[in-house]
Write a structure and sequence with these properties.
Blueprint: E1 5-11, H1 18-26, E2 33-40, H2 46-56, E3 61-66, H3 71-81, E4 86-89, E5 95-96, H4 100-110, E6 116-124, E7 130-133, H5 142-150, E8 162-165, H6 182-193, E9 196-207, H7 213-223, H8 226-231, H9 239-242, H10 245-262, H11 266-279, H12 287-298
Parallel strand pairs: 1-2, 1-4, 2-3, 6-9
Antiparallel strand pairs: 4-8, 5-9, 6-7, 6-8
Helix pairs in contact: 5-6, 7-10, 10-11, 10-12, 11-12
Amino acid sequence: MPTLFSIIIPCFNYAKVLPRAIESVLLQSGSDYEVLVINDGSTDNSLSVAHEFAERSPSLINVIDQDNAGPAATRNRGVEGSLGKYLIFLDADDELLPGALAIFRERLQKRPEIHVLVAGHNSITESGGSKYISPGMMPNTPKDRVEAYLLSKRLVLSNGSVAFARDVFSQYRYPEQYRSSEDLSVFVHALANYNCSLLDDAVAAVHKHGDSLRHDLLISNSVGLAIVDEVFSSERLQEDVLGLKSRFYIQRCLSLSRTAYLSKDYVSCKRYFHLAYKVSWKVVFDFSYFRKFILSSLKR
């Protein structure tokens, strides 16, 4: 039977939860899918855990081992090594919900013209609480779809709950120079250039973690504002979509300003807010961000 789905699981030091992710796929119905586990240079026993599952289900699971290269390069390796018509990227600490592939399968078989199928997910807290996150709404035009996802947040895309047709990656893949926010440009590329559809069903459980703010700041600063040009590339987006770039730049500046403030990096907080202000003085009316800027200015 041809491979309809490739579930690509990038893994870096997630040996403790990797079994949960793999088992959630093996419990899906049908025999038209494969699982690719890409070990991204883990220093724990993630690789041996993955191989144990592959030995038990050699016809379904393929394991790829590589030196640490980051999440973008790992996902790209999955694209290259997969066979499926549709690709689902499942983080190693998350899981597919029962019946997820059946839900995707039914819609895609009825509407094969769909390139990007976005579903809902359940957000799981560290204490085990679960909250359904709706995918929101899917506007008709590329510009409105990008605006809804990137700016107004009326459209929610999350790894594990999106099925991409392989064609989406024929012209563009994950930007490997970034170790954070690498999925933003891929999501925008897909929404702006391909047929998209929506499912209200929750198909994945996304587990949240209380990572340190300082770590978040270091990762965010490593990407900084460069991701804006990556997302809004004139090589991939039409003119009307490119018109959203300045709004995203402001949003990105304010987000970095907030992260810096919460990490007590008041110099960076002021710098990012000032960059947003240079584009639009109206950011002073966003009290939450402006307050953090004022408080940072009072720090010595």
